[in-house]
Amino acid sequence: MKLNRFYFLFFFSVLQLFSCNEKQLDITDFKANVLKSTTLSVDQKVSLLLDQMTLEEKIGQLNQYSGFWDFTGPTPEGEEVSQKIKNLKNGMVGSMLNVSGVEDVLAVQKIAVEESRLGIPLLFGFDVIHGFKTISPIPIAEAASWNLDAIQASAQVAAKEASASGINWTFAPMVDVSRDARWGRVMEGAGEDPYLGSKIARARVTGFQGDDLSSPSTIAACAKHFAGYGFVEAGRDYNTADVGTSTLHNIILPPFKAAKEAGVKTFMNSFTDLNGIPATGNTYLQRDLLKNKWNFDGFVVSDWGSISEMVTHGYAKDKKHAAQLAINAGSDMDMESHLYVTQLASLVKEGKVSEAFIEDAAARILKVKFELGLFDDPYLYCNTDRQGSIVGSKALHDSVLDIAKKSIVLLKNQTNILPLPKQGLRIAVIGALAADKTSPLGNWTLAADANSAVSLLEGLQNYKGNSIAYAKGADVAVGKVGFVSELEINTTDTSGFKEAVSLAKKSDVVIMSLGEHAMQSGEGRSRANIDLPGVQQELLETIYAVNKNIVLVLNNGRPLAVQWAAQHIPTIVEGWHLGSQSGNALAQVIYGDYNPSGKLPMSFPRSLGQVPLYYNNKNTGRPSPVNPGEVFWTHYIDQKNTPLYPFGYGLSYTKFEYDTLLVSNTYSDNKQIEVIVDVTNIGKRQGVETVQLYLKDVYASVIRPLRSLKGFEQISLQPGETKKITFTLTDNELGFYDNQGNWLVEPGSFDVFVGTDSTTEIKSTFKI
Ligand code: NOJ
Fold first, then answer.
1. Are strands 763-767 and 749-755 parallel, antiparallel or unpaired?
2. Quick one: pLDDT at residue 481?
């Protein structure tokens, strides 16, 4: 202990000498003795490093550039690229995004480390949203697994593959709660519920970061988009978010808090404004709440260009003002606005920005670099052997297949068509998506190869016992598929119907794969209609007219309003965009090699007019008609209030029975309530059930939802087997946030519901 202190003081005094004359700093010694010291703490090293940095170099740490070009090939011409490279050499860049692959990352890291004065390594950020090259299901699909271990494992696998490709920071998880199926980015989140969303946020952060960030297999995570982005008005991406305080504190913020508590290293703010203040310039969110109240010691990155967009919002008078507002509000790193690097130094000199804010932001960023092990070895994530053996390996594919199976939700199996026998059937497979090998990858697959997923058709063909024939029937959309392409939804071409009809007529079963192409959800891909795009509804009805034995496999990135299908089609499987192993996962469910266990993380509406639709709504003063035919109660005159498929819903090939609830009313003794239920598998197959617990605080000083998820447990049961499930409710489950963001636990009556989905009527009551 004494020795450590001695060394620290010794080095510190040597450094003081160095800092009198910057040119004399021997960076090799400084790195070896200070930056790589095993005795100094990270905070001490950060502070000693900051002492060596000029204001401009500190600002450089706050600057993030995108490098959308091949760094091992010829450099593209143009002023912007040459400025970026110049700044890399000058130590004016703290991080790059969109540079991946060991060769490219190494080339750029070398510039920073070997050509800049202090040689500070860069962070390499990338949107590793659901896998890197080997793709797992889109996040909303993974959320449908309700399997926290599998979700954590999926993030871990993604981190392993991305880190083997040079990446050390992912812009994930997106923890935005959303209730609006029109918003294209619901595919990227965990759905509508803050409790499930918080558990999943924790699982994903832990999966990416592991318990040792300096291991070459783990990467820093980023909780985004802080905050309110999931509440864009009318579900239109980038639109304004106007949110009441109760919803902000009880619905939107909890998953962010959970991510913080799980140790997430970074946050990303949002393009959007929250109640009139852009998130990027929002002091309440970033400084008051996140950094002060929650004590977050990582850093906040802006969203792409969101600092300069504050001018367009009408919040900043010009770009320089935008930089001032953003840094003062607590946005630490500038993603691609290029404003910190150009404006902050003069803002400091003019006294409009305190140097302490720059120093604090730089310290936060440097700290993460130290924690990632980059000062010990800037090329830690640049091992070509590792890249070769890990990226795309069989082990990764096995792992994404596992979570893909668990993400599938059986919505209807009326006549028990499923599981299909493995022999003797003539099966027609219809729908463009069934043969598509790109769409199953889903949106946000920047590093994946097009055409690399196992299609549904291929997955079915891997089972050899039945005869399988395919007809496209119709396209989902027309247009080029790609990251920046537009897909026209309203294709009108029905010329393939005839072939599909004739195939359906001579088949025993028709498997139809309908829904959305991957590029019809995701960022910038909101929809004003949430039915089956193009002529797919017409195709479905046409085939139904000749063969009613249909298994409808939905592939989609959002809840769809498929009321006609729910009424007519006997069997519906929610197959989302399941990633690289999509077709194999679906085939295993269709043939019964995996008994479906998924549950919806978002309500499916009957029609678009119900949106935003969510299960944890408040009661209102006029909840149900007092008399038949009554008009003045909260309802539509042309649609039910209830969803088509509720939150938490999903069937199995077996059946589960719930016994009466037992509630111990002992809150006054030890401040906790126990809720006990027996669950039995009364069917003939092993199955997995997610037992869900919902609470209703009957009256409170701020109105509480009719029910809120406050516990769930996933169990596997053999036929005839019973398991006793005990939920323990503490103040963490019993309380809520008031409109000032204070946590309250109020005495009074509670209803508790336990069951198979959010509509369960298995109920008991207790008091606290
Ligand atoms: C914009 C998106 O909103 C954000 O989520 C993403 O991480 C960045 N672009 C970087 O690609």
1. antiparallel
2. 54
